[in-house]
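In this supplementary section we document a worked example of the pipeline. Step one takes a protein sequence of length 172 as its only input; no multiple sequence alignment statistics are reported here. Step two produces a three-dimensional model, which step three serialises into structure tokens for compact storage. The input and output of this example are shown verbatim.
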Amino acid sequence: MSIRGPRLEFAVGAFLLLGLASLLVLALASSNGKFGFGQSTYPLKARFTNLGQLRPNAPVKIGGVTIGSVAAIQLDPVKLDAVVTLEIDDRYQDLPGDTSASILTGGLLGESYVGLQPGGDPAPLQPGDEIAFTAPAVDLIQMVGKYMFSGGGDDKSGTDATDNESTPPPTE
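The serialised model returned by step three reads:
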């Protein structure tokens, strides 16, 4: 009794083809369909005082639509700011000169990305320009810590607001 036959060979071949096709789909998904040479981009720079969890290859978005990625992050040795180089898709070359950049987080604990908000300046940003208006990342853990350890209320003195001995009587 022979296990090998045309049906088994066909099944093994089909299984291998499905495996190779799934690897191709995975490669396309992880490289955004670019394969190292794709659509051309142009660089923009932005300075931030706090990057939070921003990393290279993070997306750059306008209104939730990805228009580029973070190419590099460096520290300016003079100003001690983080200089982020953004690679923007050439299709979006008409970004206004007063476009602002913020570091945002997708969800409560999601990935960080750079969000751009176009302004109204008729002159566009040129390749290599620096975005002048930036907002740093918000560190949620630091904010929660400040709120928890400061008492969480508006009364910073620690006295009871209903205690009338510490307030002078009203004058007429």
